[in-house]
Design goal:
four-stranded antiparallel beta sheet; Triger factor/SurA peptide-binding fold; 17 strands; 26 helices; alpha+beta; about 55% helix
Length: about 650
């Protein structure tokens, strides 16, 4: 199908025209939009539907966000039913809070929105030296989230309004100190225990499975013995460096660039000046400014009568603390380093000349030019290497857009090979073997990029070994690849994995034997505690587990201590089994005033989260939330709401 489309593009365009135009004529644009937007309702909030299309789009955005922050994340995990349901619950939560904000009149003003945008570090970094926002870079930033500037600002406005729904509860969460102390101290209580560990590995060493048992285990656990799918690929990248390599600079271009940039290449002219400053900020009252200007005029007359007294007058009268002591000397400076009125005046003087009164934002200046340092003109041959670097960089920036279009079109139109684009744009063809959907540890760059990996293992590229589309993996960097050889995932034969089967079966049987032995000892020790032969006593708590497994610590701390000693058995899975004898309960120690305050704050926060969770459940009932999509094993909307 794709081959036919590529080879008969104009025919397909004509057919599409014949199909689409009548549909608009018959049903109208509005009806066509309704048809396009139609989708199964997956959830309802306040009488408003959330469609399958909206869910898909929200999950796509969430996947892109996670991939951007965690490039090596497992893509299969992101596309699991569990992950998708979490996205739906988050989407429902946003709709619930938005409805609550709207019904409560919690609106966000333009001023509050502006303040939020100004406080965003990512947006603050886009400010130009004059304080204005670089609108093009701002547009690019929000486009990465699939939004226009207007859409992004609407989203921020909605987020602020929604946060007001829960902020009031979060800020008022409070529990009495007595309750906090009781709960925290109980949670961090210590216990003196003795632990008998029945190690599965010790029992596993005694297990000798038969061939029949191994075959049965293998057949029952085929998923454990799969080889990973792999691909050998070719790929080609287009970036500014690649464009630079293809550029050939003419001698005429180099010389023209030299002539146009002689001053910059040779260095800037430097000037040395001294000044007398009479301070009067631009914000000062008009009367104060006029008085300062009159004083500057008096000093100018004195300087004009006795030019050699400039330094002495500066020491006595200049209000610039940085230069007055040096007779007003400012040392050498170039254009762009001083205030513009001062700079214009200084660069208009000849050596030894004195300016008139010059007004600036700081006040009024009298300037004397004391020296001029003219840079030595550098020859063409001296600066040729610099010119080549600068000119190639400039030309590459201009040519990249043209090359990117050619790259995109070529890899699509000539989809059976990357050689045409390599030859056309003079690029380098790279190869890689053993590529998998999830990059191996230590792999970086193109071969670790999730967008590229998703494309290379997609249907058309995988089944027909076509080139992938041109994928932008970074600003000014495109890549396309194709599979040369593909090895699908397969179940490895028993002969190849017999050692692994034996080890797994031994481990499983070892854990069973350990549990059986541990359970028997537990029953015997409960019946006759004095006969228990156990290791030395150790004191454990949740914050000081003493290297004991979490399950063991939890079991020991949850054990009923009405009668001591108390015995409890703990199944540790493949690690084995443990019998814990609880001898004594001990109060928490090391509590200071500072730690008590921290405990109180954390407990209050936990209490607030619990109240928000309860409030959210109330809102779900109020706005008649209904999930139509089947529930997956996922984090609940309540938990997601409480999470940061």
């Amino acid at each position: 199908m794709f081959d036919f489309v590529r080879k008969h593009t104009r025919i397909m365009q004509f057919l599409l025209f014949l199909l689409i135009v009548p549909s608009f004529l018959l049903f109208g644009i509005e009806g066509y939009s309704r048809f396009r937007d139609k989708g199964e309702t997956v959830a309802e909030v306040d009488g408003q539907d959330i469609t399958q299309v909206e869910w898909d789009n929200a999950h796509k955005q969430e996947v892109e966000r996670v991939r951007a922050s965690q490039p090596n994340v497992d893509l299969k995990r992101l596309d699991s039913a569990n992950a998708r349901y979490i996205t739906l619950e988050r989407l429902v939560r946003e709709r619930v809070l938005a409805a609550a904000a709207q019904k409560s009149g919690l609106l966000t003003s333009d001023q509050r929105l502006r303040r939020a945008l100004q406080e965003d570090p990512a947006i603050a970094s886009l400010r130009l030296p004059d304080g204005t926002l670089d609108k093009e870079r701002y547009r690019q930033l929000v486009a990465q989230q699939g939004l226009s500037p207007e859409g992004f600002e609407a989203k921020i406005r909605a987020d602020i309004s929604s946060r007001q729904v829960t902020n009031g509860i979060m800020g008022t969460g409070f529990a009495p100190k007595s309750l906090a102390d009781l709960s925290v101290n109980a949670f961090l209580e210590r216990r003196e225990v003795q632990v008998a560990l029945f190690n599965a590995a010790e029992f596993a060493s005694k297990v000798e499975p038969t061939d029949t048992e191994m075959d049965a285990y293998y057949q029952s656990n085929l998923a454990l013995f799969q080889s990973t799918e792999q691909a050998s690929i070719e790929y080609v990248t287009l970036d500014l460096d690649a464009v630079k390599k293809s550029l050939v600079l003419s001698e005429a271009d180099l010389k023209t660039y030299y002539e146009q940039n002689q001053e910059r290449l040779s260095g800037k002219e430097e000037r040395r000046a001294s000044h007398i400053l009479i301070e009067s900020p631009k914000s000062a009252a008009p009367e104060a400014r006029q008085k300062a200007k009159a004083r500057a005029q008096e000093l100018l007359l004195a300087v004009q009568k006795a030019p050699d007294s400039f330094a002495e007058l500066a020491k006595k009268n200049s209000q610039d603390p940085g230069s007055a002591a040096n007779g007003g000397d400012l040392d050498f400076f170039t254009r762009g380093t001083m205030l513009k009125p001062f700079e214009d005046a200084a660069f208009a003087l000849n050596k030894g000349e004195i300016s008139g009164v010059v007004e600036s934002d700081f006040g009024y200046h009298i300037i004397r030019l004391t020296d001029i340092k003219t840079p030595k003109k550098r020859s063409f041959e001296e600066v040729r290497p610099e010119i080549e670097v600068d000119l190639k960089k400039q030309q590459a920036q201009h040519k990249y857009a043209e090359s990117a279009e050619a790259f995109t079109n070529t890899v699509y139109e000539q989809s059976d090979s990357l050689k045409p684009v390599v030859e056309r744009l003079k690029l380098e063809l790279h190869t890689a073997q053993g590529l998998t959907r999830k990059p191996a540890a230590g792999i970086t760059g193109v071969l670790a990029n999730p967008k590229f990996l998703a494309a290379i293992f997609s249907g058309d590229a995988l089944e027909k070994k076509h080139n992938t589309e041109a994928i932008e993996i970074a600003p000014n960097q495109l890549v396309s690849g194709r599979i040369v050889q593909y090895t699908p995932a397969r179940t490895l034969p028993l002969a190849e994995v017999k050692t692994q089967v034996r080890e797994r079966l031994q481990a499983a049987r070892g854990a069973e034997l350990a549990k059986k032995e541990g359970a028997a000892r537990l029953a015997a020790w409960k019946a006759s505690p004095e006969g228990a032969q156990l290791p030395a006593v150790v004191t454990i708590s949740r914050d000081q587990p003493q290297s004991q497994p979490v399950a063991l610590v939890e079991a020991a701390l949850r054990a009923d201590t009405t009668t001591l000693p108390a015995f409890v058995g703990v199944d540790l899975g493949l690690r084995g089994y443990a019998v814990v004898k609880v001898n004594k309960t001990l109060a928490r120690t090391g509590v200071t005033d500072e730690s008590a305050k921290q405990d109180q704050a954390q407990y209050n926060q936990a209490w607030s989260v619990a109240e928000i969770s309860a409030y959210y459940e109330l809102l779900k009932q109020r706005f008649k939330v209904k999930f139509n999509a089947p529930k997956s094993v996922a984090v609940s909307g309540v938990d997601a709401l409480a999470s940061p």
